[in-house]
Every structure is written in structure tokens, then in C-alpha cells.
Write a structure and sequence with these properties.
Elements: H1 3-16, H2 24-30, H3 35-45, H4 54-67, H5 75-85, H6 88-103, H7 106-119, H8 125-135, H9 145-154, H10 168-181, H11 193-205
Amino acid sequence: MNIKKLKQAEAAFLNRYPGGFENPVMVEIGKKHRMDKMIAFAQESFKQRNFDRPDLIVDNMIKVISRASMVSLFEKPKFRDYAKSLSLKSKEILASGLEEILYRNEQYGFETILEVLKNGKLAKWSLMTICQTYFRPEFEVFIKPTTTKGAIQYFELDNLQYHPTPSWAFYSEYRATINEMKTLVDASLSQYNASFSGFLMITMQEGFLLPE
């Protein structure tokens, strides 16, 4: 990890947006993401008692993904249609995978959901990571391929090698890396991991970072 580059990005961002994500410009941009509402909805929807009803869990997964600003418009209807078409048994497997991720064995749950989505040709990083991102926003990470690949390259995250097919090994290592990186910057940039990833994305998109 190149900490110098991370600190340069932090300084440039805070210079343009004093206060970080509390800056009025960032607050306005953040409104479209409705993070607080999405977090509250996910945490209520995926309470452990609800997992006695797999159909409800799958319906709530559809709602979360449909409302998520971070998921592409292309992927939302594909997931909705696929999830609705699943047999009761497959819905039970999908719901149990999410329960494992949130409450039990994360790796087993991740790989369970991955297999269900592979069957529908929907094994996408965004669909694999959005529900837990809203459920545990200070810990989990949403993986957006362009941002993730850019961060790995620019910040020299040599412990990571991105692949388009989701895997637990990459997710767990990337999550650990992001959680380490955010401890090195001002707290105003990392209330949620999605905010921290947004900080990385914005600095790279807007050319804040110094040339290689």
C-alpha cells in the first residue's frame, strides 16, 4: 500500500471539500444515495427473525437491490426477474446464504449466494456485496469494478488481484485492506465504507491525484 498517495488524495479532497462528506456539496451529492434510509431498511429487513420466511428475505433483497443507487440500472431488473423466477427451494438457499453472511459463516454464505447467482448468469460483484454493505456499512465493502481496479493500481495494493468473477478470498482481503486504509485518513471521509470508496472514486475521477 502506498500511504503517501493515500495522504495526497486525502489532502486534495479536503482542500476542495473542507469537512469531507459534511461539506455542503458532498451532502447534496449524497442525497441521491439515501444511505441512512437504505441502511435502516436493510437492517430492519434482514433481522434474524425474518429468515424464518425465505420468501420475505428474497423479496427484501429485490427491494434493496432495486432501490440501491450503487447498483446499475442494467442489473436491477435482471436480478428482480431471476429472483422471482426461483423455485421455493432455490429461494430458501439464497436466503440461507444471506443469513450465513450476516450471522454465521460468512464464507459459506458468500459461496452459497454465488452459486445461486451463477445459475442465472448474475454472478456480479455489485449483486454479491450490496445487501451486506447496507446491513453493516462501517465494516462491509461494496465492490464496484472500476473503482476497485483503479484503487488497486494507483495505491499499489499488491496483496490484491482483481478478477471479474466474485470470490470470498478477494472479498475478505479487499475488505481488510479498505478497513485498514480508512484508519489512515480523516474520519470525515470514512463514516461508512461506501463513503470511503466514494472518496477514492471521486479523487481518481476528478484528477486530484498526482500523475504516476
